[in-house]
Design a protein that fits this description.
Elements: H1 50-63, H2 65-100, H3 106-147, H4 154-162, H5 165-196, H6 199-225, H7 229-235, H8 240-251, H9 255-290, H10 301-341, H11 343-359, H12 361-365
Helix pairs in contact: 1-9, 1-10, 2-3, 2-10, 3-4, 3-5, 3-7, 3-10, 5-6, 7-8, 9-10
């Protein structure tokens, strides 16, 4: 006989027509007719677990590789090409001018050449900020629509993200500028104290160490609390000040969870990148050391091939990292809105309305599709 104290109700088998993701069995004690939250696309429409937040960003690459990885690779390759062409040509002509200058004028010409090279580097930096902002908007939009089961083409994603490009780029400038300003203030104070000499040097070193640690902690805190700003700019079409306030509000109570997910995803990507690139870097160093400086051009071919291979691998890994990390923040945004605002219910209504609209039932009832669920 069965011991009454250890008796458990039997698990109920799922019906044969259960939706994908239903599972092999219903939970013990689940009511009749229970079904798990729908999963029309990238993620299930419910608050996400920690594991889902870790693996889902990598699924973004698999689900729509042409639009996501293709966009990232185009952006990374474009930035690299512009940097090589602009900085390379300016450096070549500047150093040629130094070599042709009279000996008594070479110091002045060298100073001007150095300034020219530095200024030329600002061009790819500016383009990099704009291109990275565009890519971030593309991935945010892809994650949002993939959650609803939609699969946009590359052109549609670029047009959608392009409408919010300038607020995204301005936010990147503001964030980067604030960090550089803080570094300049601490660095300038340390240099001033060290120049004064005597006991001020010790004070300067202490301020440098403590100030550096405080800056790292403050940067992590601010970047985490404002990490949702790009998603808010693109999906809710907010201005930068409103997006910052809303990001601060959404991450309240979820700081460590947000930081943990972003840190672990970045660590996974960087570890994989190191595993791939380290052997190639070692081979490149060995190949360069084995080349005879007086050898023929053919002796340099293996080193050139390895360098091109390293550059290509770096571009691919950089594209993967950009997609995964941007997708991570977008998924965190969706998860927090599900937890705090019931966004999962709005997403389910939208999916049901879209299905009904596609079937033609809306035309009969006289109702239109549900508005964009991400807009507040």
């Amino acid at each position: 006989m069965t011991d009454p104290q250890n008796w458990q109700p039997p698990a109920i088998a799922a019906p044969s027509d259960a939706a994908p993701g239903y599972g092999e069995y219903l939970p013990v004690g689940a009511p009749n007719g229970w079904a798990p939250p729908p999963k029309p696309g990238l993620i299930p429409l419910r608050p996400l677990g920690f594991g889902t937040l870790l693996w889902a960003p990598f699924q973004v690459l698999k689900r729509n590789p042409k639009a996501t990885f293709g966009s990232a690779l185009l952006v990374q390759a474009g930035i690299t090409l512009v940097t090589l062409v602009v900085v390379g040509l300016v450096t070549f002509f500047a150093l040629s001018r130094v070599a042709d200058a009279p000996i008594d004028e070479q110091d002045t010409v060298m100073a001007g050449a150095t300034l020219t090279i530095v200024l030329s580097a600002l061009v790819p930096v500016a383009l990099s900020i704009i291109a990275s902002a565009l890519l971030q908007g593309i991935i945010v939009l892809e994650v949002a629509r993939a959650t609803l089961g939609e699969k946009l083409r590359l052109g549609a994603l670029w047009r959608g993200a392009g409408r919010r490009l300038w607020p995204l780029a301005l936010w990147a400038v503001v964030l980067g500028g604030a960090l550089l300003l803080a570094i300049a203030i601490i660095g300038g104070l340390v240099v001033l104290l060290v120049v004064l000499g005597g006991p001020w040097q010790v004070i300067g070193i202490v301020i440098g160490v403590l100030g550096g640690l405080a800056l790292v902690a403050a940067s992590v805190w601010v970047f985490t609390r404002t990490s949702l700003v790009p998603s808010l700019i693109v999906l809710e079409r907010l201005s930068i000040p409103r997006a910052v306030r809303r990001s601060w509000s959404l991450t309240t109570g979820y700081f460590w969870r947000t930081l943990g997910v972003e840190f672990l995803v970045a660590a996974i990507v960087n570890i994989v990148a190191q595993i791939v690139t380290t052997p190639l870097s070692i081979l490149f160093g060995v190949a360069v050391n084995l080349v005879d400086p007086n050898g023929a051009f053919e002796a340099y071919i293996p080193s050139i091939v390895l360098y091109v291979l390293i550059l290509f691998v770096a571009l691919v890994l950089g594209a993967v990292a950009a997609v995964v990390q941007s997708a991570t923040t977008a998924l965190i945004y969706i998860d927090l809105r599900m937890r705090k605002e019931g966004l999962d219910l709005e997403l389910q209504r939208f999916v049901e309305s879209a299905a009904s609209h596609a079937a033609g039932s809306n035309a009969q009832s006289g109702t239109g599709p549900v508005p964009d669920p991400y807009l507040t």
